[in-house]
Amino acid sequence: MGEMISLTASCGHKFQAYATGNENAARGLVVVQEIFGVNHHMRAVSDQLASFGYRVLSPALFDRVERDVELGYTSDEIQKGLALREKITEDEVIRDIEATATKLAPRAVGIIGYCWGGTIAWWGATRTKAFNAAVGWYGAGIAASRHAVPHCPVQLHFGAADQSIPLADVEAIRKTHPNVPTYVYRDAGHGFGCEERQSFDARANEIALHRSLAFLAEHLS
Asked: What is the pLDDT of residue 101?
């Protein structure tokens, strides 16, 4: 449904982004990848979100170190994704998501991310002023930077059975930010929103998607 376009960060780095949705849509959305690149699943998520009236861009953050990365969900590919992530600095990620948001301006722009992207969505809310709303799904790095102050409304989603995000971390986030809607889905593991992973939880994904869309619609109107 969409196409790959070229964007340029403030440092001059050129990278690709998957673009989908009506170019004349009144609202824009940056969809941030997991550690598997802008793969089939990430493009499908972008297309789905675009169908709700958004112009969507999903930046290829791995272009900083390797172009055209599309990984699956085997243990070997997970390790490759983790290794690629470690080669990219947080500042570089921020430059790329800011450039993506700029491409969507002057619309109201939201950001939603999954896994690594869930943490990046939190950074987008707390380290930039580029977004009008942010939604993070199972971002393992949020707890470590929970004392940062969001510049826009934020909504967060976690799985109660997530082996990589202890419930103690979720409670710490809630305690630090009691006004941030933070949802925990019983029996859901990490990656519960990805139908291509064994941890996919259809019910949790449906509820989290509904909540995310309602939140974005409220704050990007």
From this structure: 98
Tell me which H or E stretch contains 168.
helix 167-176
Q: How big is the chain by its Cα radius of gyration, in Å?
A: 16
Neighbours of 146 (CB within 10 A): 17
pLDDT score recorded for residue 221 = 84
Marked catalytic residue, from 41, 63, 115, 219: 115
Do you find a cis peptide bond into 106, omega within 30 degrees of 0? yes
Catalytic residue status for 219: no
Mean pLDDT by 10 residues, the chain (221 residues): 96 98 98 98 98 98 98 96 98 98 97 98 98 98 98 98 97 98 97 96 98 98 84
Of the candidates 190, 194, 201, 219, the residue annotated as catalytic is: 190
Alpha-carbon distances of 170 from 12, 134, 199, rounded to whole Å: 37, 17, 19
> At residue 116, what are phi and psi to the nearest 5 degrees?
-50, -40
Domain topology for 3-219: Rossmann fold (3.40.50)
Domain ranges of the chain: 3-219
Catalytic position from the list 96, 162, 169, 201? 162
Q: How far apart are CA 110 and CA 133, in angstroms?
A: 5
Specify whether 162 is catalytic.
yes
Q: How many whole angstroms from its chain centre is CA 138?
A: 9
Can 76 be counted among the known catalytic residues?
A: no
